[in-house]
UniProtKB/TrEMBL annotation:
DNA-binding region: 34-53
Designated gene of the protein: pksA
Ranges in a coiled coil: none
Keywords, ordered alphabetically: DNA-binding, Repressor, Transcription, Transcription regulation
Location of the HTH tetR-type domain: 11-71
Domain of life of the native organism: Bacteria
Database matches in SUPFAM superfamilies: Homeodomain-like (SSF46689), Tetracyclin repressor-like, C-terminal domain (SSF48498)
InterPro entries listed in its UniProt record: BetI_C, Homeodomain-like_sf, HTH-type_TetR-like_transc_reg, HTH_TetR, Tet_transcr_reg_TetR-rel_C_sf
Organism: Streptomyces hiroshimensis
PANTHER family for this protein: HTH-TYPE TRANSCRIPTIONAL REGULATOR RUTR, TRANSCRIPTIONAL REGULATOR-RELATED
Organism lineage string: Bacteria, Bacillati, Actinomycetota, Actinomycetes, Kitasatosporales
Pfam families reported for this sequence: TetR_C_6, TetR_N
Protein name, UniProt field: HTH-type transcriptional regulator PksA
Length: 202
């Protein structure tokens, strides 16, 4: 209808701003990026951006949480695509594969997280947000290892929490080497499969 203003989806606009921030983070990191830079990248005015985010830190926290939500959604999609109910090993494999920068989408996510974590090293408030996802991920991985033990697929002498942290560390290391092109995606996946093979050998 003529004269009726277009209704703005506020959550959609916040996500569009977060995606503009990701593009900047991938291109040049976050330290030099101002709210004005992000507004320009998103195609809106600085005043419009500040209507959604009052500070750069608030915008960063939202962008990181949104990134996590997208990753969780992709992991669920991968697991639902399996022909049979996934085993603990399947769950771990598909989750870690999604965390690795094996395609453009996951590569972008990892570059954004690295830029965010570098900034968080010097900011206590941001550091708290950066750390909060690790305990949950470790607990999730440890639960899968315990399920493997209960199913007789993992040796009962394995310490589930330690194995979970080792898997996270392996994933982080492989992520770094993939981004630096020290190893290929096939090599990274082979190392991951080898680790899970050793873990899931009772």
């Amino acid at each position: 209808m003529v004269g009726v203003p277009k209704r703005v989806d506020h959550e959609e606009r916040r996500r569009a701003i977060a995606e503009a921030l990701w593009r900047i983070a991938c291109a040049r990191g976050l330290d030099g990026a101002s709210l004005r830079d992000v507004a320009a990248e998103a195609g809106i005015s600085l005043g419009q951006l500040q209507h959604y985010f009052s500070s750069k830190d608030e915008m960063l926290v939202f962008a990181l949480k949104y990134l996590g939500e997208l990753a969780e959604k992709r992991i669920r999609t991968r697991l639902m695509g399996l022909a049979v109910p996934p085993s603990p090993r399947d769950v771990l494999r598909e989750t870690v594969l999604e965390m690795l920068p094996l395609d453009e989408e996951s590569r972008t996510g990892n570059l954004v997280q690295i830029a965010y974590f570098v900034r968080a090293l010097h900011d206590e408030r941001l550091r708290g947000h950066a750390r909060e996802g690790v305990p949950a991920l470790r607990a999730f991985f440890a639960d899968q290892v315990r399920s493997g033990i209960a199913r007789g697929e993992v040796d009962s002498s394995r310490a589930a929490d330690a194995e979970a942290m080792l898997l996270i560390a392996l994933t982080d290391g492989l992520t770094t080497y993939l981004l630096l092109e020290v190893c290929t995606p096939d090599e990274a996946k082979g190392l991951l499969e080898g680790h899970l093979e050793r873990l899931f050998t009772p």
